[in-house]
Amino acid sequence: MAVTSVAPLRRCPTSPESVPHFSGIRIYRGTAPTNLAPLTSIPASKISYSDTGLTGGTTYYYAVQAVDTGSNTSPMSTVVAATTPK
Fold it and tell me: Which of 53, 50, 54 is nearest to 40 (CA)?
């Protein structure tokens, strides 16, 4: 099972100008909207991410943060949900 391009992954949670020296996006995932853990980081040049190896019929919650070259982060994006097919 996989989830690809959940809405906030297509767009930085804030404009790149709000994070000086924007370098990438940190992706968080969880099975509850209030319990997200770091999943991975992707470079600024990448516009999507496929989350593979997921359990069918499960709802996963995602949020992202913009990251700059000094590892400073933007505020966390809105949490979104994606349910894998059974």
Answer: 50
